[in-house]
Every structure is written in C-alpha cells, then in structure tokens.
Design goal:
It is built from nine helices and twelve strands. Helix 4 runs parallel beside helix 5. It is of the alpha/beta class.
Length: about 350
C-alpha cells in the first residue's frame, strides 16, 4: 500500500473455521515523522556515508539509463529527472513512462529523487534518467536493441534489472561494446536465495548484492541518529560467490505509484545505490569528472568502487563489500583502516 508499511504473509496461521481476517498496516509516517513535509535521506545512504558528502555533490551532467519495466515519469519527485526513454515491447508507444511492476520507479527514486523538501532525496538528484521498458514481454533481441540505444543516446551508466536463464554470447559481446564506449553496466545478482543470475554473471558487469539492517523498523535516521548497527545478508540474496559489491537493499524507502512512497526490498535496490554512487563519482571524482566516455574511464571507475569498499564478514557472497562514498568521490584516501559501521554476514 502506498505510504504504508507493506506486508506479506506467506503462511498465515488461521484458526479453524476462520475464513476472513483483518490485517492492519502502519503508516510510514509513524516511523519517519513528517517525512512528507521535510524530505529525508534513507538508512542506506547513511550506511554508505553518502550523507557526509558536500551538498554540491549531486551528479549533475551524468545520464543513467534504467532497463526495467518502465518508470513512473509523473511522480513529482521524478518528473524533473526523466529525460527520455523507449518502450521495446510495444513499438511506437510511450509506455516507458508507466511502470508495470513498480521496480523501475523504486530504483529511480533511490538514484535521482528530487531534493524538493518532501518525501525522499535521491543519491544523485541532479543526474538524468532514461527509461527503457523491456518487460513484461521483452526478449533477448530487445535487450540487444536497448544496449544499442544506450550507445547512441549518451548513457554514462546503465542498470539492467532483468535476468535470463542461460548464458548468451551475444549479450557478452554487446557488453564489450558498452565497455569500449566507456559505459558502466550494473546489474543486481537476483533475488534467488541461491545462484547469481545473468546479466549479473556476465564478465565485466558490476554485480551487486543486497544488505539488510538489524533494526527492521529503521528506515531513515532522525535527529542526528548514528548508523551504529549490524548489516547482514538477507535471505533473498544469493548464497554463492559472484557479487562484486554489496549495498543496502532491504527496507529501502523510495518512490512508488502516483505521488506516493513505500519501502522495498531487493538486489535491484542495492544495485540502484551503486548506480547512483557511480554517477557521483563520474561527476565529482577529480580523476574521473573531466574524462570522456572511454574504456580507461570505465576501468578507473571500477577500480575506485572496488578499492573503496569495506569488506563484509561473509565476503564470499558480498564481493569486495560496501563502498565508502567519501572515498569513491575522492574526499578521503582509499584502503580504509576501519569499517564505517559494524558488519555481519
């Protein structure tokens, strides 16, 4: 439900003879006081130390392309960030401005939700988002066309929120084309609880897994609240190696349908944190901001993201760990001596 805590009961325990029950969900504002009137940053941003960056670090000039089920371009927090798109499932339509699942809108909110004094503020609120609709109904051939679209429309970072069952050499070759053009490709590892899905498993794609926080009701810090706590790998994240990086992906407050907000779980939300952080690095890191889109810039960004990360205890499933934003944008030296918060696998 919009503006309320979502709830899902897999196996409700109903007394014998009871066929109807009532479930009460709590308003988000019970936990995030007046967030609709003042705007907040989320726990995920604090966990990555994004709240410590100067206010002018906003990702201006960077184009992010989301390959998903569309983005709700009418949302007041997003309408200024959406700069174009295409529907690859219905030729000649603008259905890329509508979101069939809510996932694209949720990721767009993490990346570029406006700093307008209400709801949430995205990590890179002055970056621009292009929405490419690939599902429901898309095929591998449509994904190839979408990647060609990225090559022709100035994409800096592309996040691909979809998976397919078997390896594809055609997709792997197209990823090489993106790399040659200096375009960063990022994908969630999937919410399988087991294996890492393709596209994340394709060499060269930054594969991102999710982290959860031990306080299940902690959505947005308030009144100077510190980020002390424990991060752990949630049950939906893959349990085998394959991720390059980890990022917050559970209980993420973000944009939803119409003008509303919700909390969302998933490795796609974690990938959106890395996508947005990449936009900040490309816009503001002194060694990256003046570089044109080339493989050299891509290689440099990959190196910055991985070497700035703090290992998580279960490092075999969380890759290099969770990035420290201040190091990613060049504000602090790399190779931290202590983690930003207590971490647990």
């Amino acid at each position: 439900m919009a503006d309320y805590w979502p709830v899902r009961l897999e196996h409700p325990n109903l007394p014998d003879g009871v066929s109807e029950v009532s479930i009460e969900v709590r308003p988000l504002e019970d936990f995030i006081h007046n967030f609709l009137e003042k705007g907040v940053t989320t726990w995920g941003q604090h966990a990555m130390r994004l709240h410590e960056l100067p206010s002018e670090y906003r990702g201006k000039g960077i184009i992010v392309t989301l390959i998903d089920a569309g983005v709700n371009a009418a949302h007041p927090d997003l309408k200024g960030a959406i700069c174009g798109g295409k529907d690859f499932t219905h030729a000649g339509t603008s259905l890329w401005e509508c979101d069939a699942t809510g996932n694209g809108t949720a990721c767009a909110g993490v990346i570029a939700s406006a700093d307008n004094g209400t709801g949430i503020t995205g990590i890179a609120p002055e970056s621009q988002i292009q929405s490419l609709k690939l599902y429901p109904g898309g095929r591998i051939s449509d994904l190839l066309k979408a990647m060609d679209w990225c090559l022709a429309h100035g994409t800096d970072v592309v996040q691909v929120n979809l998976s397919y069952p078997n390896p594809s050499w055609l997709i792997a070759l197209k990823i090489r084309d993106l790399h040659t053009a200096g375009i960063v490709a990022i994908a969630p590892v999937g919410d399988t609880g087991g294996h890492v899905t393709f596209l994340a498993a394709v060499p060269g794609v930054l594969a991102v897994t999710a982290l959860a926080h031990s306080n299940s009701s902690w959505v947005a810090p308030r009144n100077g609240q510190q980020t002390a706590g424990v991060l752990y790998t949630p049950s939906y994240a893959p349990t085998v190696p394959g991720a390059d990086l980890a990022a917050p992906g559970t209980n993420i407050l973000t944009t939803a349908g119409e003008s509303s907000y919700t909390t969302v779980d998933g490795t796609a939300l974690a990938a959106a944190h890395i996508t947005a952080l990449s936009a900040l690095a490309l816009a503001h890191h002194p060694g990256l901001r003046n570089q044109t889109r080339t493989f050299t810039r891509l290689h440099h960004l990959h190196s910055v993201l991985t070497t700035s990360s703090v290992p998580v205890t279960a490092s075999h499933v969380t890759g290099r760990g969770i990035p420290d934003a201040a190091r990613v944008v060049g504000m602090r030296p790399l190779f931290p001596q202590t983690p930003p918060i207590s971490l647990q696998g």
